[in-house]
Amino acid sequence: MAQANQKITLNAGRDIPFNKLVLSQQNVRKTKAGVSIEELAEDIAHRGLLTSLNVRAEVDADGKETGIYRIPAGGRRYRALELLVNQKKLSKTAGIPCIVSKGETLEVEDSLAENVKRLDLHPLDEFRGMMALREQGLDEEEIAARFHISVATVKQRLRLG
Fold first, then answer.
1. Residue 154: which residues within 8 A CB-CB, separation 6 or more?
2. Which among 100, 83, 2, 4 has a CA at the least distance from the CA of 45?
3. Kind and range of the H or E element at 114?
4. CA triplet 44, 50, 53: central angle to 5 degrees?
5. Predicted structure pTM score
6. Which of 21, 15, 18, 10 shows the shortest CA–CA distance to 97?
7. Interatomic CA distance for residues 120 and 157, integer angstroms
8. Strand-pair partners of 16
9. How far apart are CA 5 and CA 88, in angstroms?
10. How does pLDDT run across 70-97, given as a tens digit for each residue?
11. Could you tell me the CA-to-CA distances from 97 to 16, 17, 36, 90, 91 in Å, in that order?
């Protein structure tokens, strides 16, 4: 007897005011590495938020939602947005794109999955992207500045061609 495929339901996305968001203590990322919060804030100010925050509704002792949302995945993006709010470049009531998670998984699981399942771009794909930017008129210094990487790294990638 054939078994029917079980359909999945994706978590809903919606804009939540920045001042209704708080960091979850269950976020697994504790070590600072890679692009700084300041550089990420600059990138968000330039390009916008490219990846939504993953949030869960906070509930009170009776199980009712409080209107506050905890962020188990997206803490660095939240900190960058917080910096933009503190710099008065973003309103504290601005709607922030969020994926609202529900279900059986734990907050720490959300955080770990987002960080473990990430895959860095292959150097050949970096070459193709940087080559496209160069063909559109950007030089190595401009590409390096936009992505907070060294000019030497840009030149190295462009040599892959």
1. 130, 140, 143, 144
2. 83
3. helix 107-116
4. 95
5. 0.78
6. 15
7. 14
8. 96
9. 49
10. 999 899 999 999 999 999 999 999 999 9
11. 7, 9, 21, 14, 14
